[in-house]
């Protein structure tokens, strides 16, 4: 469905945001993981034709999107991380507008998508009266209004309350049955719940891509747990790649990743996706 | 095809919805009605708006329509530009541009929709103004109202000028070095030239067809028509006293010479190249190309310049020393000026240039050239000082600092005044040695510009209000040599103590109004 052939994005300043990344994705939910500055947003901006790759090409359903950008755009739903809304438009007007630009004329369709994100009761209210979470849902609605074959969402769950997050994850899973959903987030648990495949980026390069199980299996034998004193924790914390540290009555319950924790007396435990992410990127686990 | 039209319609509709729904739109309609009222003095008052020689022109529909269309055209070509030159910038600022860029809407259709939306908005403004002028004619006209004459005259003025202004505004938004507040000032120069050049050439009988065709403001065309219709080469459009002993003249109306009309309508074609440039320069919200423009000052020269600025700043406003210690209003003002200097390195060039010109220029040039140019350059800078905190969402952060929230208006006012003084200090000192009253008037002008920037910036939240209002005022002040009431800073050398006092009181009242407004807003926000 979507083929990325060794694309590179080099800015005029010389910064290489994406370096020779290749990917092949079919229908389903693909999660993009990576620390800040890994190039996730740039990669998505290239896929949605917002910016052009310096080299390489991107094919959607076999068509080069640089040559035929409208072929992709008419099948695309996009929710960027830093999108905005027209404050003095109503939710209905805003979705009708962006729907109109995508060729959607049906009022029922607009109302339907507002219902899908639980905003139908506020359809004729001005967007300036909306909370941050409601605006985020409005952003999700505009991305879905044309029944996209390719949905790209960058940090979509930021600002959503737990109930809406679950609702959105369910929505993505449903969409992923027939479409390709590329979902970038810092919240690893969100990905674990919906992604069929996870791609990990670091410093503009693709570190790995695989199913959550494959990613997890790469961390087997590398995740450790130990209970240590607070003083010992202060001594060790700069030396270890810590996945979590919880202060309890008996000391600090420390979970860390690395090749050998047994020398510290730690016990190997079953890895979680966050541990695998930490191991792959060598960065702190995002909160 | 239908889809393309539907997309165009969507952009147009949204543009109109957003513009007409703004709270400022009904206020603008009211201002236009007020302007129509001021444009038609009562019969029997000492001045009129249309004179041929020293004779007043009888207020028939042709004369009223002509004067109101010319005055409206003059103001619309300036104010209209600033009103509408934010449609692409709005999409960029709000982030909606990212969403639009990912749709199949082509750049040309997007810009065409924006252009059409801006045309509709300006046309609505012009229509309201025309209707208000017709209403005033009913009240104060000396002959019956002829609506067709009004419609014809307004059409020949605005039909070519509105699309041209809309396309120029779009071009200024899309071309990187024309966008922003520097572009706002550049447009003012462009406007003064396009306003003055065609009539001057017509008066000198040196008009060329292409110059009249390029005369999108319509001033050259109307001057030509008036000369043709009346045979007079000496006439005044704009408030002026008349000789009551002379009988009023009947203006026969425009002759509608076909070649003149065709030439006038041909200026409509200038919309195409302006739109073309906008389209060619439009980057479709590409973040890579956008940031390369925004980060254009990362080269070696720019870095060297920034270092020089840092050294200068350390000397002028040191971080340590007197700035350390308990917070106070004075320190907050100094830090705000420091921020202005750091944000706009070009400000240094202005200060240094003003220093040298103030020292070396002859006294006559200081008043006639250095001070007006100084005020002109200060306009975008002062507009930014009072609006940047709210525009960049840093106001709440700043308010959390001690001594700022309750004294925010004073901080912004004195920051603007101090910045103005940094530029104007040397010319002021020179003037005070030669002409102490002139220096006092110039100082008063600085007070006036700083207080106006503070009030309009805080009141409207956008720098454009002050930019457009003050540029228009500056234009009137520098071109109305016979009306000393506009001489706010002694630029014409004609201020009386009463005028100086008037502008000083106006400045104080504006600061007081800003204080009252900000207090009301804070109380409202705090619940």
Write the topology of this structure.
The complex is a heterodimer of chains A (287) and B (527).
Chain A: E1 2-10, E2 16-25, E3 28-33, H1 40-47, E4 55-60, E5 63-64, H2 69-73, E6 76-79, H3 91-101, H4 107-116, H5 132-144, E7 150-154, H6 162-175, E8 180-184, H7 188-194, E9 197-202, E10 205-210, H8 212-217, E11 223-228, H9 230-236, E12 241-248, E13 251-257, E14 267-268, H10 273-281
Parallel strand pairs in A: 3-8, 3-9, 6-7, 7-8
Antiparallel strand pairs in A: 1-2, 1-4, 4-5, 9-10, 11-13, 11-14, 12-13
Helix pairs in contact in A: 3-4
Chain B: H1 2-21, H2 24-39, E1 47-52, E2 55-56, H3 61-84, H4 87-94, H5 96-101, H6 107-140, H7 147-174, H8 181-203, H9 209-213, H10 219-230, E3 235-241, H11 258-266, H12 271-281, H13 287-294, H14 300-316, H15 329-343, H16 346-360, H17 363-391, H18 395-399, H19 408-434, H20 436-460, H21 463-479, H22 497-525
What does this structure look like?
The model of chain A has no long low-confidence stretch (mean pLDDT 88). Chain A has ten helices and 14 strands. Chain A is globular. With 287 residues, chain A is α/β, with parallel strands linked by helices. A six-stranded mixed sheet of chain A has the order 6-7-8-3-9-10, sandwiched between helices. In chain A, strands 2-1-4-5 form a four-stranded antiparallel sheet. Chain B is mostly helical and 527 residues long. Helix content of chain B is 73%, strand content 3%. Chain B has 22 helices and three strands. In chain B, helix 6 (107-140) packs antiparallel against helix 7 (147-174) and helix 7 runs parallel beside helix 12. Chain B is globular and about 75 Å long. Residues 291-297 of chain B have low confidence and may be disordered. The A-B interface holds A 9, 11-13, 45, 48-52, 70, 73-74, 76, 78, 80, 82-89, 93, 96-98, 100-103, 105, 139, 142 and B 3, 6-7, 9-11, 13-14, 17-18, 21-22, 93-96, 98-106, 284-289, 291-292, 295, 298.
């Amino acid at each position: 469905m979507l083929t990325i052939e060794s694309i590179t994005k080099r800015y005029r300043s010389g910064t290489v945001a994406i370096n020779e990344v290749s990917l092949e994705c079919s229908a389903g939910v693909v999660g993009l993981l990576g620390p800040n500055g890994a190039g996730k947003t740039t990669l998505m901006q290239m896929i949605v034709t917002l910016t052009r790759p310096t080299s390489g090409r991107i094919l959607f359903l076999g068509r080069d999107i640089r040559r035929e950008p409208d072929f992709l755009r008419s099948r695309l739903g996009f929710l960027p991380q830093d999108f905005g809304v027209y404050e003095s438009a109503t939710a209905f007007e805003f979705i009708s507008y962006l729907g109109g630009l995508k060729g959607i004329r049906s009022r029922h369709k607009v109302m339907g998508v507002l219902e899908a994100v639980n905003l139908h009761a506020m359809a004729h209210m001005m967007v300036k009266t909306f909370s941050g979470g409601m605006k985020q849902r409005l952003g999700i609605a505009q991305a879905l209004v044309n029944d996209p074959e390719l949905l790209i969402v960058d940090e979509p769950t930021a600002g959503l309350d737990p109930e809406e997050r679950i609702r959105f994850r369910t929505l993505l899973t449903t969409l992923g049955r027939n479409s390709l959903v590329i979902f970038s987030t810092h919240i690893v648990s969100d990905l674990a719940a919906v992604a069929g495949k996870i791609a990990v980026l670091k410093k503009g390069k693709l570190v790995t891509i695989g199913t959550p199980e494959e990613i997890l299996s790469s961390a087997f034998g590398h995740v450790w747990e130990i209970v240590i004193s607070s003083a010992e924790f202060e001594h060790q914390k700069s030396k270890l790649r810590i996945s979590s540290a919880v202060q309890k009555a008996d000391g600090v319950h420390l979970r860390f990743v690395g090749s050998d924790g047994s020398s510290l007396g730690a016990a190997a435990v079953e890895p979680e996706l966050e541990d695998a992410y930490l191991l792959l990127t060598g960065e702190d686990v995002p909160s | 095809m239908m889809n393309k039209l539907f997309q165009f319609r969507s952009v147009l509709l949204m543009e109109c919805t957003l513009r007409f729904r703004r709270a400022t739109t009904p206020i603008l309609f009211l201002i236009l009605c007020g302007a129509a009222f001021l444009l038609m003095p009562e019969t029997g008052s000492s001045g009129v708006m249309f004179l041929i020689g020293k004779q007043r022109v009888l207020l028939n529909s042709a004369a009223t329509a002509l004067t109101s269309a010319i005055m409206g055209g003059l103001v619309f070509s300036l104010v209209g530009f600033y009103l509408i030159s934010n449609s692409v910038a709005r999409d960029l600022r709000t982030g909606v541009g990212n969403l639009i860029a990912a749709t199949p809407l082509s750049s040309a259709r997007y810009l065409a929709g924006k252009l059409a939306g801006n045309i509709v908005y300006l046309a609505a403004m012009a229509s309201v103004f025309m209707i208000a002028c017709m209403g005033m004619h009913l009240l104060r006209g000396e002959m019956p109202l002829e609506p067709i004459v009004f419609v014809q005259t307004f059409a020949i003025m605005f039909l070519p000028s509105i699309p041209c202004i809309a396309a120029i505004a779009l071009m200024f938004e899309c071309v990187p070095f024309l966008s922003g507040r520097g572009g706002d000032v550049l447009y003012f120069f462009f406007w003064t030239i396009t306003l003055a050049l065609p009539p001057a050439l017509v008066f000198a009988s040196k008009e060329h067809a292409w110059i009249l065709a390029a005369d999108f403001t319509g001033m050259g065309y109307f001057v030509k028509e008036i000369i043709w219709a009346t045979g007079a080469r000496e006439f005044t459009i704009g408030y002026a006293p008349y000789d009551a002993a002379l009988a009023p003249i009947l203006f026969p109306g425009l002759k509608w010479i076909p070649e003149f009309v065709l030439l006038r309508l041909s200026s409509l074609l200038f919309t195409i190249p302006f739109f073309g440039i906008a389209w060619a320069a439009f980057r479709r919200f590409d973040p890579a190309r956008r940031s390369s423009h925004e980060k254009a000052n990362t080269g070696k020269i720019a870095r060297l310049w920034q270092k020089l600025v840092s050294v200068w700043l350390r000397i002028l406003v040191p971080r340590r020393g007197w700035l350390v210690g308990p917070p106070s209003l004075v320190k907050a003002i100094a830090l705000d000026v420091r921020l202005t200097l750091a944000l706009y390195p070009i400000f240094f060039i202005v200060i240094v240039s003003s220093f040298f010109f103030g020292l070396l220029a002859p006294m006559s040039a200081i008043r006639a050239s250095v001070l007006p140019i100084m005020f002109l350059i200060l306009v975008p800078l002062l507009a930014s000082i009072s609006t940047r905190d709210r525009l960049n969402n840093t106001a709440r952060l700043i308010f959390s600092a001690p001594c700022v929230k309750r004294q925010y208006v004073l901080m912004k006012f004195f920051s603007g005044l101090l910045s103005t003084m940094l530029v104007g200090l040397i010319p002021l000192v020179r003037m005070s040695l030669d002409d102490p009253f002139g220096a006092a008037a110039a100082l008063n002008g600085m007070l006036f510009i700083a207080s106006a920037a503070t009030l309009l910036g805080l009141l409207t939240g956008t720098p454009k209000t002050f930019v457009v209002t003050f540029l228009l005022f500056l234009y009137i002040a520098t071109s109305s040599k016979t009306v000393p009431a506009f001489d706010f800073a002694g630029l014409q050398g004609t201020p009386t103590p009463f005028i100086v006092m008037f502008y000083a009181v106006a400045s104080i009242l504006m600061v007081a109004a800003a204080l009252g407004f900000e207090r009301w807003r804070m109380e409202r926000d705090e619940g």
